[in-house]
Write a structure and sequence with these properties.
- This protein is α/β, with parallel strands linked by helices.
- The chain has one domain (2-141): YqgF/RNase H-like domain (Nucleotidyltransferase, domain 5, 2-Layer Sandwich).
- Helix content is 51%, strand content 25%.
- The longest helix has 30 residues, at 112-141.
Length: 142
Amino acid sequence: MRIMGLDVGEKRIGIAVSDPLGWTAQGHSVLQRTTLDNDLAALQELCRQLECQLLVIGLPRNMNGTLGPKAEEIQKFAGQLQELTGLPIVYWDERLTTRSAERVLLEADLSRRKRKQVIDKVAAVHILQGYLDAAVKEKFDK
């Protein structure tokens, strides 16, 4: 079962996908946002091509765990994507994923310009891998 992870931002959407067994997340691409319809259509087509069966979408919570206006925007976007693709959606707490991704890229000694090009994809990997790790742990804890 292939799973897609998304880090939805205002300008870009970071995309990660799992391996077919659902154990590891790999960075796929970064979608430069244009219009809502174009963004949704591009993601729908990618889900079709990759035969995804689940979408994990990063949900930006406040540090106290509450949902703010940005989280509500993400939920609205996810609802429209779910309606279009028919795929189930899981929200994953994305607090500090961008910071974590930036730390990884800094350790890799990438220039600021190169970091900007891939940070959303790396954040999507962190979101998806967090979900996959939790799902595997849940299976083994039973």
